[in-house]
């Protein structure tokens, strides 16, 4: 052990370990050079456009004992990263990659969607097939116990969010969140699994209530109105921080 090693952390096999509040908690520190250059790219891009959307593909979660890429909690570095992108000039931030939904934050009057899940999911089996085998590719993908099958039949994967942000005179005034059903009850034909459709009222309510819980730590209040989540932004939120269809901007 190096003589100057901090008491609460240790470097081992190229990884850094530190004392946390409970076993399995994970925290991250971005490479400062990467963070600096990404922020510079955002500032540079903003000089050429009226509206800048920053995005990041991330799978990291907050704890080790989790099903891979199905973590509703937002990792600490992603919050810091999204804030720095807004500070650098981004008008909205969208996190993707994790196959579930995460909370929504309004930071300095700008919308941050930490996870909207997969809008369209194409199922395919990339595993080599046994010539003369009894199962088709689709059947093998959905077979219980198969690696691909375990990934496909996760209910978390089969719910998604569409977001619409409304601006007036350059100020964000309202965000609407529409749940989408990719076939969560698995009653559809295989050919339609992963295709976004209007959810049942019960599913819409369930997804939006989950989004309410996930967004509450960020101080975001979401009203549920006829199966749609509505966030109304006050002028105070715009000044202090705290229509864009995820990927398309309406102003």
Topology:
Elements: E1 9-12, E2 15-18, H1 32-46, E3 53-58, H2 76-87, E4 92-97, E5 104-107, E6 110-113, H3 137-142, H4 147-152, E7 159-168, E8 171-181, H5 201-215, E9 223-225, E10 228-232, H6 235-240
Tags for this entry?
single chain; 251 residues; alpha+beta; four-stranded mixed sheet; 6 helices; disordered C terminus
Question: Your description of this structure?
Answer:
This protein has one domain (21-240). 24% of the residues lie in helices and 23% in strands. It contains 6 helices and 10 strands, in the order E-E-H-E-H-E-E-E-H-H-E-E-H-E-E-H. The protein has helices at 32-46, 76-87, 137-142, 147-152, 201-215, 235-240, and strands at 9-12, 15-18, 53-58, 92-97, 104-107, 110-113, 159-168, 171-181, 223-225, 228-232. The strands form 3 sheets. A 4-stranded mixed sheet has the order 3-4-6-5. It has a 4-stranded antiparallel sheet with strand order 7-8-10-9. A hairpin with a 2-residue loop joins strand 9 (223-225) and strand 10. The N and C termini lie far apart (57 Å). The model is unreliable at 244-251 (pLDDT under 50).
Number of helices: 6
- The protein's oligomeric status is single chain
- Averaging pLDDT over every residue, what do you get? 84
Element pattern in H and E? EEHEHEEEHHEEHEEH
Instruction: State the end-to-end distance.
Output: 57 Å
Widest β-sheet, arrangement of strands: 3-4-6-5
Helix content: 10-25%
Strand count: 10
Shape: globular
Q: How much strand content do the residues show? A: 15-25%
Largest sheet: 4 strands, mixed
Q: What radius of gyration results from the CA coordinates?
A: 21 Å
Low-confidence stretches: 244-251
Protein structure class: alpha+beta
Q: How many separate domains?
A: 1
């Amino acid at each position: 052990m190096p003589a100057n090693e901090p008491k609460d952390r240790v470097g081992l096999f190229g990884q850094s370990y530190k004392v946390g509040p409970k076993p399995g908690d994970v925290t991250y520190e971005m490479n400062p050079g990467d963070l600096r250059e990404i922020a510079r790219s955002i500032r540079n891009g903003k000089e050429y456009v009226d509206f800048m959307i920053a995005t990041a593909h991330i799978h990291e979660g907050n704890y080790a004992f989790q099903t891979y890429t199905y973590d509703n909690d937002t990792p600490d570095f992603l919050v810091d990263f999204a804030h720095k992108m807004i500070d650098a000039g981004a008008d909205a931030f969208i996190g993707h990659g994790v196959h579930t939904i995460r909370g929504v934050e309004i930071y300095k009057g700008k919308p941050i969607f930490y996870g909207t899940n997969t809008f369209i999911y194409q199922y395919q089996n990339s595993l080599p097939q046994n010539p003369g085998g009894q199962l088709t590719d689709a059947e093998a993908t959905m077979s219980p116990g198969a690696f691909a099958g375990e990934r496909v039949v996760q209910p978390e994967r089969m719910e998604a969010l569409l977001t619409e942000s409304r601006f007036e005179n350059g100020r964000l005034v309202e965000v609407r969140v529409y749940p989408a059903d990719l076939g969560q009850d698995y009653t559809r034909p295989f050919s339609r699994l992963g295709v976004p459709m209007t959810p049942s009222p019960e599913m819409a309510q369930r997804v939006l209530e989950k989004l309410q819980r996930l967004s509450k730590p960020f101080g975001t209040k979401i009203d549920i109105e006829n199966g749609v989540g509505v966030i109304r932004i006050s002028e105070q939120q715009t000044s202090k921080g705290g229509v864009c269809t995820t990927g398309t901007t309406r102003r």
